[in-house]
């Protein structure tokens, strides 16, 4: 029997796509308001409908087409934080794409960001959740689009916007095509993370580390196929943002017990736990913890330790980190 994990256990979630966290009912509501017919992206039971990862990316973008104004993103932020509160999340970081918020134009992006930041302040007041933003270039939109995305990030770096990263189809382009954007963000003092090793194998993780030099890797789980790389991750203290339910739902691994997260931990890689795009993968962070406790006999102490690592790896200031660590360690 696995230990019952208290759903209210305070949690840190570092890997959450903002549009990917949109409840389907929220997106359906926006589509109705704007007279957009996106009915084909929903199943009969009201969830998101797609066949595989690549179709998922298309459906994601169709859902995102309903988000057209800063006010829409403000409302989305409140909905996303309400869901995080239900999961016991006390600190979250979310991926935001200037491509979806003003098309890479800095002044338009500022307005979207302002609306999201205002909602984040409400979330802090009403739910006690601290939210930070990570600007994310979309790999399959191409290297050219990553440059304005990086410039948007640099121009709006601050208390809320603290990081830069890349997501999207890992099989498109090569990390070296994105060095300009990552160098630009690094020089401005932004913290860096890159999706790799979700679909592209261990080599994709190596290339991301070599060319983009991020301190965290989104997913990174396929590193398990190259134990020298696993040792490098552990030695260099590169943090993995692991999203087991996403990997299982999309078929990267057939089940939770077959997922490499436990092996990675055993080899002393720093792992953190997130949901990625929870309504798309029909998951919540509470469900992830339950499935992991069952698959690997992880206890509440394991989850507390993982959350403390996540707080230490957070892209935030030292005072925020200390405050979150106190909550996680039961000192606040
Ligand atoms: N964008 C949204 N979810 C993603 C994922 N799981 N991998 C890559 N890009 C994404
Ligand atoms: Zn992701």
Automatic annotation (TrEMBL):
Name under which the protein is recorded: Adenosine deaminase
Stated family: Belongs to the metallo-dependent hydrolases superfamily. Adenosine and AMP deaminases family.
Organism, scientific name: Pararhodobacter aggregans
Entry-linked Pfam families: A_deaminase
Cofactor(s) demanded: Zn(2+)
NCBIfam families with a match to the protein in the record: aden_deam, PRK09358.1-3
Gene3D superfamilies on file: Metal-dependent hydrolases
Molecular function in Gene Ontology: deaminase activity; hydrolase activity, acting on carbon-nitrogen (but not peptide) bonds, in cyclic amidines; metal ion binding
PANTHER family in alphabetical order: ADENINE DEAMINASE (PTHR43114:SF6)
Domain Adenosine deaminase as annotated: residue spans: 10-328
Keyword terms of this UniProt record: Hydrolase, Metal-binding, Zinc
Keyword Zinc attached: yes
């Amino acid at each position: 029997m696995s230990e019952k994990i208290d759903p209210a256990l305070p949690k840190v979630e570092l890997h959450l796509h903002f549009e990917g966290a949109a409840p389907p009912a929220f997106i359906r509501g926006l589509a109705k308001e704007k007279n957009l017919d996106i009915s084909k992206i929903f199943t009969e039971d009201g969830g998101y409908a797609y066949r595989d990862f690549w179709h998922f990316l298309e459906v994601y973008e169709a859902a995102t087409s309903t988000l057209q104004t800063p006010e829409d993103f403000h409302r989305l932020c409140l909905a996303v934080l309400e869901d995080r509160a239900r999961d016991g999340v006390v600190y979250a970081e979310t991926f935001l794409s200037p491509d979806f918020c003003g098309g890479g134009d800095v002044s338009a992006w500022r307005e979207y960001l302002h609306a999201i930041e205002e909602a984040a302040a409400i979330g802090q007041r009403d739910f006690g959740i601290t939210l930070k933003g990570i600007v994310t270039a979309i790999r399959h939109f191409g290297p050219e689009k990553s440059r304005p995305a990086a410039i948007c990030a640099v121009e709006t770096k601050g208390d809320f916007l603290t990081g830069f990263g890349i997501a999207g189809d890992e099989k498109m382009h090569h990390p070296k095509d994105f060095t300009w954007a990552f160098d630009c963000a690094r020089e401005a003092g932004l913290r860096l993370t890159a999706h790799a090793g979700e679909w592209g194998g261990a080599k994709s993780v190596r290339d991301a580390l070599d060319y983009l030099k991020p301190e965290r890797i989104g997913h990174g789980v396929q590193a398990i196929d190259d134990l020298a790389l696993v040792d490098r991750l552990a030695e260099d203290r590169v943090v993995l943002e692991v999203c087991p339910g996403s990997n299982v739902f999309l078929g990267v691994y057939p089940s939770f017990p077959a997922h490499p997260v436990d092996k990675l931990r055993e080899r002393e890689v720093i792992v953190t736990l997130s949901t990625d795009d929870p309504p798309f993968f029909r998951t919540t962070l509470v469900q992830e913890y339950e499935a992991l406790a069952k698959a690997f006999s992880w206890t509440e102490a394991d989850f507390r330790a993982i959350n403390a690592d996540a707080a230490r790896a957070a892209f935030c200031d030292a005072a925020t980190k200390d405050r979150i660590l106190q909550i996680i360690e039961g000192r606040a």
